[in-house]
Amino acid sequence: MAIQPARIRVLNDVKPREGAGYVLYLMQQAMRVPFNPALELAIEEANRLKLPLLVCFGLLDGANGFPEANARHYSFLLQGLADAAAALEKRGIAFLLRRATPAEIAIDLSADAALLVLDRGYLAIQKRWYGEIEREAQCRIVQVEGDVVVPLETASTKHEYAARTLRPKLRKLWDDYLEPVEPRQVDHPAEGLIKRLKLKDGLDASDPEKLLAKLALNTTVGPVKRFRGGYTEAAGHLKRFLEHAFAGYGAGRNKPEAGAASHMSPYLHFGHISPVEIALAIRAAKDADDDDRSAYLEELIVRRELAMNHVFHTQGYDDYARAVPDWARKTLAEHADDPRPKLYSEEELAEGKTHDHYWNVAMREMRETGYMHNQLRMYWGKKILEWSPSPEEAFARTLRLNNRYFLDGRDANSFTNVAWIFGLHDRPWQTRQIFGSVRYQSENSLRKFDAKGYERAVTRLCEAEEG
Fold it and tell me: The dihedral of CA 5, 9, 13, 17: what is its sign?
């Protein structure tokens, strides 16, 4: 099946280089082999040019490490790369993992490439890498957008005000893009290519734990046992979710104790699974009704792609002054001097040492397992706003804690959800102390689910981490 043309952008429209040794694919956002349109396009081009395919990945650590990433994030990432490297080898595709920025490895290897294929991300750092590659790589460059259902600028060319403004645009289009990505046959296997090219600086991706120990990383937040990275793990989680938890998702998704979450967010963040594959599986699921499917696709497509739209169109999406809308900053400023019921330091928040027992439970789940249910994430963030000395400091704290502990931190969804706490993609509500007309969330919201049942589940998960 052909890759939809709207997913493909030619960044450097020159003819493929003659006499080249390979076609090159920089696998940086879509870290998987199945359902990867960028990879399949690279295979098509390699077959057409009668060349082997070389896939590369630039691994940052030390002073050049990915901003705010720590050993928890890198462990999950390396597990995914090990899974991808093994799958590439089975298909006759070479893989090179090198200590370098993505731009550095792509530019270097493009010198002997007929053409270069990129995938696409929307964060500022990713846009900077791709811009550097576009300026300096001396070969044809093709970018393929494979980690959203509807290509971002096909859905909308402007910053959307809210989910309600983007939703009809996505629903009108998404059927056209919910198509399977069939694996292409590799006509020219790359066996021995790395050796022939004398590329001796590659890292061994096969042992993630061993490689993790060699990297210069922030180790204050360590790996978790609850989730293991890679497409194989992601597909297993999805299968179990569809078989045991999806029926009733519409009613149970806001109940953390109900076990109705799919836990796909870390895998989507690292590109270990395609949102298209998930959406197709949701549509085909048995024993679920239309409410379940609609609720899940709302989160997977509308909310997630609204976040992509936000970070793409917002310079400074991690900055309070630019990420939070004017009306919300104005009302929060008007109430900045309101007395706070409690004030906590960031260290006290991180350690879960507040007067709010269930907030502390949620913080424990986040700190020790790398995950927190969405229903608790919003309550968690609203309380940080309430317990911080200013809205600006609350925004910075929330983002730092989010990015430090969550496996899916530093994601477009993370930046957008943090800004939502402060009024993004929302409207003014009844005026209150501290919050002004920004939406408030009280302890009464905990009565909507079995908070004690949630605590028992968190205790079991954290004991498993310690065991």
Answer: negative
Phi, psi of 8 (to 5 degrees): -110, 130
Count CA atoms within 13 Å of residue 295 on its CB side. 17
Handedness of CA 392, 398, 402, 405 (dihedral sign): positive
CA 241 to chain centre: 19
Confidence of residue 257 (pLDDT cuts 50, 70, 90): confident
pLDDT tens, residue by residue, 417-456: 999 999 999 999 999 999 999 999 999 989 999 999 999 9
Question: What tokens were used for 147?
Answer: 């980690």
**pLDDT over threshold 80, residue 143:** yes
φ/ψ region of 118 (left if φ > 0, alpha if ψ in -120 to 50, else beta) reads: beta
Residue 194 tokens, joined:
């790395």
Q: What is the pLDDT of residue 467?
A: 82
Mean pLDDT of the region 343-370: 98
| DSSP assignment of 57-103 | EEEP-GGGSPTT--HHHHHHHHHHHHHHHHHHHHTT-EEEEEES-HH
Q: Is the pLDDT of residue 234 over 80?
A: yes
**Angle (nearest 5°) at CA 71 between 70 and 76:** 105
- Residues 101 and 59: their CA atoms lie apart, in Å, by 6
> Residues near 315 by Cβ (< 8 Å), separated by ≥ 6?
124, 322
The phi, psi pair for 123, rounded to 5°, reads -75, 160
pLDDT at residue 242, as a whole number:
95
Among 87, 146, 116, 126, smallest CA distance to 26 is for: 116
- Domains delineated in the chain: 1-147 (3.40.50.620), 151-185+230-313 (1.25.40.80), 316-466 (1.10.579.10)
Please tell me the number of Cα atoms within 13 Å of 77 on its side-chain side. 25
Residue the block writes with tokens 């905990």: 446
Residue 24 has pLDDT above 90, yes or no: yes
- Mean residue pLDDT of the chain comes to 96
Q: What is the pLDDT of residue 9?
A: 97
